[in-house]
Amino acid sequence: MPLIKLLKTSTFRLAVIYLALFAASAITLLAYVYWNTAGFLARQTDEAVEAEIAGLAEQYRQGGLPLLVHTVIQRSRDPGQSLYLVLDPAGRVLAGTLDGRPQVEPGPDGWFDFNYNRKTLDGTEVKAARARAFYLQEGFYLLVGRDVQERREIENLITNALIWAIGLTIALGLVGGLFMSRNMLARVDDINRSSRDIMEGDLSQRLPIAGTGDELDQLGLNLNAMLDQIEALMIGMRQVTDNIAHDLRSPLNRLRNRLEITLMQEASPEDYKQALEKTIAEADNLLGTFNALLMIARAEAGSLRDSMTWVDLSATLHDAAELYEPVAEEKDLSISIDVPEGLKIWGNRELLSQAVANLLDNAIKHGLPLDNGNDRTIVVAAGTDPVRPGRGVVLSVADHGQGIPPDERQHVLERFVRLEASRNTPGSGLGLSLVAAVARLHAGSIELEDNRPGLRVSLFLPVSGR
Ligand SMILES: Nc1ncnc2c1ncn2[C@@H]1O[C@H](COP(=O)(O)OP(=O)(O)OP(=O)(O)O)[C@@H](O)[C@H]1O
Ligand SMILES: [Mg+2]
Fold it and tell me: Which of the ligands is closest to the CA of residue 288?
């Protein structure tokens, strides 16, 4: 993987930001540690020297130069870490632990750091020292100081440790950042590759899931769920298109053949007239199918939700029943209505009455009682939903025909599905599809039940659309 690409990842950028923050706090912490150790040692040295100077100044005040020189000689016998030097105006050593005056000029505060030779058992060693120097009266020179070799070494140790600590922090941070970015990038690359495959048309592909349950996995799972949905919709759409093509071809073929046969025969004007009338009837059927399809599409698009109003269900059911009364009578059937006055729901009046019309049409067309002794009433009922009193209504149409076997009840809701028993009745198998779509549009559900005997179709609809 190219390094540039790695450096550009947001993971790496995040890692660098964290690294910077971490390094800053680490440096602050270490600086504090340094100040507390090395700084403490340095202050201690200076304080010790100042204390010695104070002691010697006291001697000098009491006994003048002779007492000072005497004290320095005495102290020089067992000096410990202390350093002394007293010079006469000519520069000769009168007393002290040093061989001569250091070749370093003191700073403005009188302090200075220098190196000196210290005698050991086997020769001399160069050691670091820190001291303060004064000129006394008559040009005498006094130096009081302290060996700081050990202190310097400790300081070096601490400084080295600090530099290593900071260096290691940054190095580990960078390596860790690169490593994390590489992992992340590898997974994002996988996702990109799969998305490209999907975009190129392989809708069955899914994004890889690492199984770690992190946010990339969540994203992948959600996108996969979305793809499932899209795929299902696409398949549904293809089926519908296939169905439409298939189901409209036969009536169109029939229509065309009839016209052709009529043309080939020696026909009287009366024959022509008959043929044309049949053609118009077929065309009406086709138009009906198209209208039903369009209505289902409209109900499923959901855009009708904006045009909803309070619909008086009682009035709608009465109107629909009145419309189908004559057709029912022709088949010796009757329609009874069991609806309380003023039952209202929030919905689309046109679609609701079309749904009831479709159910009545089915009851009359497919719901004829098999035995003559059976009840010949179609019951249209509506009322509050016992499960959701006050918030939902149930609307049902029930007949006493042959009913629909339980394993077909879901199937008949699909478009263009007609059961074997209905092959001889006119229709295109779209009626129940529209009823189901209307139920969905109103955020409700549809249920097909056994009416013992017969079929009862119930719609459960929320009163206020949710
Ligand atoms: N009340 C019923 N009793 C028995 N079978 C029914 C009943 N209602 C519907 N069916 C069955 O369900 C099938 C689908 O009904 P649907 O209303 O969708 O189509 P259709 O009535 O055949 O045609 P269309 O309604 O488009 O004129 C019917 O063909 C029929 O086999
Ligand atoms: Mg129907």
Answer: 1
User: How many Å lie between the centroid of ligand 1 and the Cα of residue 426?
Assistant: 10
Residues with CB under 5 A from ligand 2 (ion): 362, 431
Q: How many CB atoms lie within 10 A of CB 393?
A: 22
Average pLDDT over residues 413-433: 89
Cβ of 366 less than 6 Å from ligand 1: yes
- If phi over 0 gives left and psi between -120 and 50 gives alpha, with beta otherwise, what is residue 71? alpha
Q: Closest by alpha carbon to 452, among 369, 339, 393? A: 369
Give residue 436 CA to ligand 2 midpoint distance, Å.
Answer: 12
For the segment 262-273, what is each residue's pLDDT rounded down to a tens digit?
Answer: 888 887 889 889
Give the rounded percent of residues in the chain with a pLDDT score beyond 70: 99
Residue recorded with tokens 């102290």 = 75
Residue 458, pLDDT above cutoff 90: yes
Predicted model pTM = 0.59
What pLDDT was estimated at residue 272? 87
Question: What are the structural domains, with CATH classification, of the chain?
Answer: 8-161 (3.30.450), 206-301 (1.10.287), 303-462 (3.30.565.10)
d(CA 427, CA 434): 13
Distance CA 38, CA 41 (A): 5
